[in-house]
């Protein structure tokens, strides 16, 4: 996800909770935590090429540096997925902020590519464990009658955070004297302010228990075929987001000849802002219709990007970026909502976990493929292949969505 979204909250049937009285402050704190953590994942978007020039690695290594983030996401999902349900929200959120600060500090003092790789993995781990606990806070501080909208609120904060990463670092990279340092100094300050907010909130897990690490993933046999459509939708949506976050500024400067990194970052920010606004504006749209809308937008967005790249057209790029924001928002949220409706209540977290794995893979694997292909063919040809593959996956997902389960299974 972006980086695709955080890990799901896995419930224990006998778990006791503290009072879940509504709290606007608690909801805002949970949202701010999500935004700040995801902000760290895109803070590097305007900086990747500076690292490439500074350390002298290839374009393929650049995309690998982006993709290793997913290792941290998957580690959080498979090892720490249930942690906040067991030990409490505040300790896990605090640990995530510490990890985010550690990642920023490593970027700040990095001396080699190895430092960058480790920092990037830690950033993915921070997002993975912290966003799940913060999402639980948003839900538990929300009045029961409004909890159906909690997922949309969480996803909105997710994309807002993704937008603020390049929005902060782009101007610093372009105009500041220490472009490889100042973005992380500023980010550490935001983490500190967020930690103060977290300290003011109450715990919502009444009786913390001993942590048990690890999570199981499986899809109930009755819904496996129907699960293909939302899984492919999440994969395609996060592939588009990952492509932009990793390679967007490079394409903007190389093909559109926009050398100002602050302006290039604003174009990337457009995708995340459109996605965040659309998620909140369509929160009452039916899950399947939401997912199909995102899938239908994918070939359009890809075609506009390819045309903008080949014609060197800024208007086409801005239009394509907005359409890709539609893909990222509706494809991701709609796919998650459909996956939730397919799952039996007692296995909903497992199904959601499987959906997030598909999103994480979409965020990384196509980008690695583009980078590898670009070693053998021109970059524009590699990007065209990416566009065709994503469009094909979206089309296949739309066809697969015709597979409807007769009932939401109960066991």
How would you characterize the overall build of this protein?
The structure is a single chain. The protein has helices spanning about 25-40, 50-55, 60-65, 70-80, 85, 90-110, 115-140, 150-175, 180-200, 225-255, 260-280, 285-310, 315-340, 350-375, 380-400. The two termini are about 30 Å apart. Residues about 5-20 and about 405-410 have low confidence and may be disordered. It is mainly α and about 400 residues long. It is about 75% helix and about 0% strand. The protein has 2 domains: about 1-10 and about 20-215, MFS general substrate transporter like domains (Growth Hormone, Chain: A), CATH 1.20.1250; about 220-410, MFS general substrate transporter like domains (Growth Hormone, Chain: A), CATH 1.20.1250. The radius of gyration is 20 Å and the shape is globular. The protein has 15 helices and no strands.
List keywords for this structure.
single chain; 411 residues; mainly alpha; Growth Hormone, Chain: A
Counting DSSP E segments of at least 2 residues, the number of strands comes to 0
The CATH topology of the largest domain is given as Growth Hormone, Chain: A
Please tell me what the overall shape is: globular
Biggest beta sheet attributes? none
Cα-atom Rg, whole angstroms?
20 Å
Mean pLDDT reading: 84
**Architecture of the largest domain in CATH?**
Up-down Bundle
Q: Give the distance, in angstroms, between the N- and C-terminal Cα atoms.
A: 30 Å
Uncertain ranges: 4-19, 406-411
Indicate the percent of residues in helices: over 70%
Determine the number of helices (DSSP H or I, runs of at least 4 residues). Answer: 15
Structural class: mainly alpha
Reading off the top of the CATH hierarchy, the class of the largest domain is best stated as Mainly Alpha
Work out the count of structural domains.
2
Looking at CATH, the homologous superfamily of the largest domain is: MFS general substrate transporter like domains
Give the SSE string: HHHHHHHHHHHHHHH
Strand content: under 5%
Oligomer: single chain
């Amino acid at each position: 996800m972006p980086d695709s979204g955080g890990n799901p909250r896995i419930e224990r049937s006998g778990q006791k909770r503290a009072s879940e009285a509504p709290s606007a402050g608690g909801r805002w704190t949970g949202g701010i935590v999500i935004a700040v953590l995801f902000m760290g994942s895109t803070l590097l978007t305007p900086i990747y090429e500076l690292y490439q020039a500074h350390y002298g690695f290839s374009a393929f290594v650049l995309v690998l540096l982006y993709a290793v983030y997913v290792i941290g996401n998957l580690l959080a999902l498979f090892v720490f997925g249930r942690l906040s349900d067991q030990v409490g929200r505040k300790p896990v959120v605090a640990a995530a902020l510490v990890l985010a600060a550690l990642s920023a500090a490593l970027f700040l003092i990095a001396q080699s590519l190895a430092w960058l790789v480790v920092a990037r993995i830690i950033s993915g781990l921070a997002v993975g464990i912290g966003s799940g606990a913060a999402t639980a806070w948003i839900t538990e501080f929300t009045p029961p009658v409004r909890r159906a909208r909690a997922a949309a609120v969480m996803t909105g904060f997710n994309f807002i955070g993704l937008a603020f990463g390049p929005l902060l670092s782009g101007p610093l990279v372009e105009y500041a004297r220490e472009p490889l340092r100042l973005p992380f100094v500023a980010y550490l300050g935001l983490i500190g302010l967020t930690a103060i907010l977290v300290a003011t909130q109450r715990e919502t897990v009444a009786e913390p228990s001993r942590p048990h690490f690890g999570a199981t993933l499986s899809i109930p046999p009755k819904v496996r075929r129907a699960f293909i459509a939302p899984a492919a939708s999440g994969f395609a949506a996060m592939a588009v987001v990952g492509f932009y976050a990793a390679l967007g500024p490079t394409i903007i400067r190389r093909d559109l000849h926009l050398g100002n990194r602050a302006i290039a970052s604003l174009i990337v920010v457009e995708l995340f802002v459109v996605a965040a606004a659309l998620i909140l504006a369509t929160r009452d749209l039916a899950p399947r219709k939401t997912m199909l809308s995102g899938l239908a937008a994918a070939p359009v967005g890809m075609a506009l990007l390819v045309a903008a790249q080949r014609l060197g057209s800024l208007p086409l790029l801005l239009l394509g970026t907005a359409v890709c924001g539609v893909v990222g928002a509706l494809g991701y949220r709609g796919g998650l909502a459909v996956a939730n409706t397919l799952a039996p209540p007692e296995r909903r977290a497992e199904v959601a976990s499987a959906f997030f794995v598909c999103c994480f893979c979409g965020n990384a694997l196509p980008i690695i493929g583009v980078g590898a292909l670009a070693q053998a063919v021109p970059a524009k040809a590699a990007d065209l292949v990416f566009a065709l593959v994503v469009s094909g996956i979206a089309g296949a997902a739309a066809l697969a969505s015709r597979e409807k389960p007769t009932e939401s299974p109960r066991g």
